[in-house]
Amino acid sequence: MARSRAAYEYTEAEDKSMRLGFLLIAAGLLSLLGLGCCWLRPALQERGGGGSANCTVLAVRQLGERFACTFSCGAACRGTARYPCLQVLVRTSRSSAPALLHEDERQLRSNPKCSYIPPCARDDQENSENVTYKQKYWKEKVGSQPFTCYFNQHLRPDDVMLKRTHDETVLLHCFLWPVVTFLVGVLIVVLTICAKSLAVRAEAIKKKKH
């Protein structure tokens, strides 16, 4: 019995391999739990009840209200500037009611009242020019041409997005890499155990021959 136990004792290299395998298994599981609770679950909720539609611009306007944004001019240099609020009202192929267009879900959460948030510049005039350029783009270049937009009837029935922040590729990668990490860890542990078992059997066969 003592000889059998000694035969199955792992060497230092095998012990390190087992530890690495268990570490990867734990990392994969924790990553899945963390992403599921903090990111994947809200992303799926945002996508639930949503879909794509064809949008047509109804009106493009600037409101008199201005909003604050934070600009950075260096490592320890930050300040506040303001930009005008641009609203792009569209009609979707799913509903005749007008909806407010947003760049994506992040922009919608940052400022649900406006359709566009310019890159925050130190000069308010530069921010205004960026918004005016975007206004001309929607009026002159897009005009009445239909384009694809995205909506979520359950969460934001009166808003549509130009693009999705959480598309299928991002969701796939968030699920894929933790699973790959977990499987690699399992594979390392299984191969180490199998290699040790084969080595012990080979040693036993060798002793029997002698």
Largest sheet properties: 5 strands, mixed, barrel
Q: Provide a count of the helices.
A: 5
Instruction: Indicate the mean pLDDT.
Output: 81
Distance N to C terminus: 20 Å
Proportion of helical residues: 40-55%
Helix and strand content put the structural class at alpha+beta
The Rg value, from CA coordinates, equals 29 Å
SSE pattern: HHEEEHHEEH
Strand content: 25-35%
What's the arrangement of strands in the largest beta sheet? 1-2-3-5-4
Task: Give the low-confidence spans.
Answer: none
Q: What's the total number of strands?
A: 5
Q: Which overall shape is indicated by the principal axes computed on the Cα atoms? A: elongated
Task: Give an overview of the whole structure.
- The longest helix is centred in the C-terminal third of the chain and has 42 residues, at 168-209.
- The chain starts with a helix and ends with a helix.
- It has helices spanning 2-7, 12-47, 105-110, 124-142, 168-209, and strands at residues 50-74, 77-92, 95-102, 147-152, 156-161.
- A hairpin with a 3-residue loop joins strand 4 (147-152) and strand 5.
- The mean pLDDT is 81.
- The chain is built from five helices and five strands.
- The protein is elongated.
- With 210 residues, it is α+β, with helices and mostly antiparallel strands.
- 52% of the residues lie in helices and 29% in strands.
- The protein has a domain at 52-165.
- Helix 2 (12-47) runs antiparallel to helix 5.
